[in-house]
Amino acid sequence: MTALGRWGGMPLRMGGGRSDAQAIYETLRDSMGSAHSKDDSTLGNRERRCMALALARAKAHQTRGAMQSLPETATDYLPRWERWLQVPVDTTSPMHLRRAVCTGALAANLPPTEDNIASACSTALGGEAVRVTTGRVPVAQMWAASFYRPALSEVLGAGQLRAGLHYVYGVNEVPMDPSTGYDVAIYVDDPLSITLAADGSAISVGGYGIPLTFRYYMSHAPGSTDASWVADGNGEPITLGTYPTERPDRNAQHYAIIVSDTTAANDASLAKLHTVLGPMLPAEATYDVISSQPFVLGPAGSPLGRGGL
User: What is the pTM of this model?
Assistant: First the structure.
């Protein structure tokens, strides 16, 4: 750091301990041994003082460069980090909060485990407590779920499935209905199930009777209730002949990010979360940012009741 007085280019001396330049100079001088003059006015010591000043300036530049190379300590380079990471920029926000958003965006490169997701979101929000819950299929306000329940049947020799019990979910997702504030989805409340008699079979899923895009989820293995996306359809009959190709540790398809009421109602805070979650979550995953209170059960309940459990 710079200093006043002899070692800082100013005509005044002030407290605060030795400057870097003075410490470097005295190290260079004393390293010559006790037989060497300690008189600062000698030609040799003046040269060492010049060297010390140059080394101190180099150290300051290196320190500054190191700080700019990390978003959590950047100052002059902070706008560049925001531009590189494509994070939302609020120039009226304190610098430490802007740095936090960049740091959270970098953390989005970590594997999307619940702990990593919660940590990255918390960092982006400046340290706010964040919780994460996961579900195997998207959870939404539903209607007519029991009416649209297609039949399952086994197709021998048409696939790669093994004998045993299998579960199938069919979900149609549409945007939020502005009149109710709920997501409207034709959603199979309970999974469809079928027990295959032979290896090498496929599952034929009957039509839903309506021309809408459906996403199908299926067990990872016979008897497993862990389901992942396996195919898309248009509501017509479809045959599922292979297991989901995702690793079993990525069976969570829907994430509920639980934050405070204030954050959930703040567009700027939501933009920070979207910046982190967009690149972090698997492409096939969906998520909701929901508030932690109040927790009200029932059709007119809170988002926690619909998307968090």
Answer: 0.47
